[in-house]
Specification:
Layout (H helix, E strand, L loop, with lengths): L31 H8 L6 H8 L2 H10 L3 H24 L4 H35 L32 E2 L8 E6 L8 E10 L2 E9 L3 E6 L4 E12 L2 E4 L6 E4 L5 H4 L1 E10 L5 E5 L1 H6 L5 E6 L3 E10 L2 E8 L5 E6 L3 E3 L1
Antiparallel strand pairs: 1-2, 2-5, 3-4, 3-6, 6-7, 6-8, 9-12, 9-15, 10-11, 12-13, 13-14
Length: about 350
């Protein structure tokens, strides 16, 4: 047979449509009054009336969209079957007024259940319609590019001084000392040293964290040095330009007898109390006997004009800054230069 609700073909023995849950009415012997009531369009359940007006396709679509509706329909169908069985049982009993009242109550209950089913169906339909509303949100992402201004890191060129004779003339060979200024940002310094021998010249590169170096030897006749600053920045090594090249001829000029000149360095004597001896050039620079030039007192102001390295000491040849008196060679540890 064909389901009057959804139009699907079902077996004759089925009491409920397996697709939409519609309960089929099977023929039973009832009183003519009940048959008229059942067959009357006005007395039919609203769900049946509305079922005749619903197109099969619309019903199928609604069932597919509703997640809970088939369960509700099946449960209600079970209730209807139970009530139908109970009605048949009562109809088979001898007819009396009590049975008629019972049948009327059952009919009322069925109508009430049908009304509740309609209400539930309408609620489910409303809920599904609200739930299936799709909200589309468009998100616009704006990429912001930050341009970093990078200043290239550079190093200044070291300022290199002149060679200073620090030869101890009590021994063979020469020793010359040279220094350069500190460069901000530098980690180390690289210098190129070229030495002159009787057979020619040899040069090599050296790296140091100090700001000075010494050149010494008995077979060296001269030397030249240039220096540059070096900084390490991650995987990159930064170099400054090379300084000017400084050269010296070992044992030439006055450097062998009175040290190397300096450009008027001024300071104050600091003997930590007491006095200090200013010594002669013969002793300090030429390896002569120990001789005192002047006893220099604490806090006197001096001007140094020459420097010499001997006996493991750096000496400065000093004069009085105020009146020009000659003090001789003073150990550098007793001078605080300004």
């Amino acid at each position: 047979m064909i389901c009057p609700n959804c139009g699907v073909e079902v077996k004759e023995s089925e009491q409920i449509c397996p697709l939409c849950g519609f309960a089929f009415e099977h023929s039973v012997e009832v009183s003519s009054v009940e048959q008229e009531t059942t067959n009357s369009p006005s007395s039919m359940p609203k769900s049946v009336q509305s079922a005749e007006m619903v197109k099969p396709n619309a019903v199928v679509q609604t069932v597919q969209k509703r997640s809970k509706l088939p369960i509700v329909i099946v449960c209600l169908g079970v209730i209807v079957v139970v009530l139908a069985v109970l009605t048949v049982f009562l109809l088979l009993q001898p007819s009396d007024s009590d049975n008629e009242e019972t049948i009327a109550e059952i009919t009322t209950i069925m109508a009430t259940e049908t009304t509740q089913l309609e209400t539930t169906t309408d609620t489910e339909e409303s809920t599904i319609e609200e739930t299936t509303t799709t909200t589309i949100t468009t998100t616009t992402t704006i990429e912001t590019t930050t341009v970093a201004t990078t200043t290239e890191f550079t190093l200044a060129v070291p300022t290199i001084g002149d060679f200073i004779d620090q030869t101890n003339y009590q021994y063979d060979g020469y020793t010359y000392y040279i220094e350069w200024g500190t460069v901000d940002g530098a980690d180390v310094y690289e210098y190129y040293e070229e030495l002159t021998y009787g057979y020619g010249t040899e040069g090599d590169y050296y790296t140091t964290s100090a700001t000075s170096c010494k050149v010494s030897g008995s077979d060296i006749s001269g030397a030249s040095i240039k220096v540059r600053a070096v900084a390490y920045r991650g995987d990159t090594t930064v170099y400054s330009d090379w300084s000017a090249t400084k050269s010296v001829t070992f044992g030439s000029g006055s450097s062998s007898s009175s040290g190397s000149s300096v450009s008027g360095m001024t300071g104050q004597v600091n003997t930590y109390g007491g006095s200090v001896d200013g010594l002669t050039t013969s002793y300090v620079c030429n390896g002569g006997s120990y001789a005192v030039e002047h006893h220099v007192q604490n806090t006197w102001h001096i001007t140094a004009k020459n420097v010499c390295y001997s006996y493991g000491i750096t000496w400065y040849e000093c004069w009085d800054t105020d009146d020009g008196d000659y003090y001789g060679w003073i150990d550098s540890i007793y001078i605080d230069f300004y």
